[in-house]
Structures are given as structure tokens and as C-alpha cells.
């Protein structure tokens, strides 16, 4: 059971994560719950009033989650909702999943624009599943809460534990075949992917630029990590021994997700991954790191003064690509790829692969035409021609079982 002290600590962290404008809008939505004379008070005082009036408590955060959702502060709503439901110590999910999942050695699927779109689960429940499952690569509470001293490791990335032997890796197996234990060992993947995850990875490879649509709790970040490893290995293999550098950006919609997503990606192995916080600039990491996790504004701040060029980036992965809060910033990045006739935009000699990740397209039970429109807008925004989703019936069943198990 969450304690009162932990709850107040959570509220302080919410205050820290909000901008001044977000705080103003938050208080505005509270309406008559806050006396007029108190509405200019610090946010911690506002929280105190809500506690005293019984509107929020360690075991009742629904009101707080609703306000955050209405403000589209989804990452903060995640944090609060998880706190309320977290009654017992977290389980190390990778170990449990490895013990329970099996490799069925079935073949690759295809892509679609209307396949496995979840309609029958409320938004909050989807969010809870997503965070509780931690995209099938859950890290411990200690790891999630341990601060990353980015300044101290800029020049010294963490060494990979096992070096890859590129000559022993058959990319055709990665692209089109089943993945045996022997193959996973060769590419140094210690967490066995589910068959539906392999299907998504291989379909995305065939598609090139694509939007990966996977319901919450299905492991979108793990799928993205596997794709990052594939494209890294492919570039190293095609270099024929010449010195080359793989560079990818994993772009998160909110600062609160930086460290969490960074830690998940690190678990794929053999990729140097760093989270770029607000105190640093991404340019200081490009020489020593393969994957930079940052907010869209961080990358835009380098594209505008031309300190980074898209031609030097191998892959751009947009997490929560449906997020309307950062839509303009996502579009701002994509214009450097798609608007080559504009004078201030430099030419792109080699375009990066574009991967979009989404898990909530089609919630709130919209009509088929509304869903189609959502998908078309996403594809147009990110220069994608396909939506990649789970298509094989047996893999849909496996996905359902996986999400149900991780939600328990």
C-alpha cells in the first residue's frame, strides 16, 4: 500500500515535471475545488488543498489522472496511475517472460492499414497496462529511480559485454526466417522475443519507413530496440571492414520518459545508448554513442543551426508518434526531410529510416473512417506508406496472452 510520504513525494515530482504554463492550466481545470484566493499559490499548496478536501489520496488518484489526461500530460498520468495500482513490489518481467514464452518458428507476416487496432479497452486501462508491462523490458524500481550523470559519461560510454562477430551473423535470418536460440546468441539478444514481436520486426524491415501499431503492453520499445540492432549490424556489415558509425535518435514526447526509455534500449546490448537531458546538447554525444534518446525539441535545436544533418542519421524512431502535444515538433523534424525546396533546409543525400511507434490509435471507439483518417495523417506526417501490425492469427493469440499475463 502506498504511504502518505510516498504520495506527497509523487506530487512534488509532478510539480517539478510541469512547466509554468502547464501548472496554470492544471489549476484552471480544478475550478471550484480551489478557492479563488488560493489559485495563484504554489502547486504544492494546491495539492494540499485537494488532499484536505478528500479529492486525492494515496489510494484514490482518479481525479488527478483525469485532470492530467485532459491536459494531455500523458506521461504524468502514467506515473500517477501506476502509483495508485502499485500495491506490491515489482516483478523482474524479463526473467518471467523468458521462462514462459516459446518460439514457435512460424513465418513472417505482412503490413496493413487496419489490422490489430484496439477498440475495446479504455484509455486509462491501456496506459496502466503499458506502464505495468514496461514494454516487456521492465527494469527494477531502483534502476528507474537511479539518476544518470550524463556529464560524467559523455566521453566514456559503457562497454558492451559481448562483441558481435559480424561474419557469423546472417542478416537474411534476421529479415525473413525464424530465430533460433543459436541465432539470438549470435546477435547477443538475451531476452527471447515473442513470435508476434519477430513478425513486427521483420515486417518493419520489409516496409522501410513504417508506423508500428501495437497495443499497450505488447513491447513496442523492445521491437524498436531489435530494429535498432538490425540496422546497426546491417551498416557495419555493409562497410566491409571500413570504419563507419551508426547513429540513431529515439525521440520521446516528454522529458519524463527519457531515462525510462533509455534504460529499456540499453538492454538490447551492443548499442551505446544515452539520454540527453535538458542540461546537455545532443551534438556532444554523436561521436561516442549509437542511439541518442531525446525530446523532439532537442533534435530541432541542432537541425536549425545545421550542427546536425539528417544525412548523417541512420534511423529516427518517434515514440508515441500519435501524440498531438508534440505534433508540431515532430512535423518540424520531418520538414527537414520532406521539404527540400525550402531555402533554409539543407539537401539530404541519404535519408534516415523512419519508424513511428503507437499503441492507442483507434481508442475511444471512433468510426472506421475516423481510424482510417488517423492512420493516413500519421503516414503522411512521417513519410510512411505502411502501418505494421500483428497479422498472423496465432501471433494475435500470443499477443493477447502476453498482454493479459503482464497486466496481472
Automatic annotation (TrEMBL):
Per its UniProt record, what InterPro entries does this chain match?
DEAD/DEAH_box_helicase_dom, DEATH-like_dom_sf, DED_dom, Helicase_ATP-bd, P-loop_NTPase, RLR_Helicase
Pfam families per the UniProt record, alphabetical = DEAD (PF00270), DED (PF01335)
Its Gene Ontology cellular component terms are: cytoplasm
Domain DED as annotated: residue spans: 6-82
Q: Which GO terms describe its biological process?
A: regulation of apoptotic process
Q: Which residues form the Helicase ATP-binding domain?
A: 201-400
- Output the SMART domains linked to this UniProt entry: DED, DEXDc
Q: Which PROSITE patterns match?
A: DED, HELICASE_ATP_BIND_1
- Gene Ontology MF term list: ATP binding; nucleic acid binding
Q: What is this protein called?
A: Helicase ATP-binding domain-containing protein
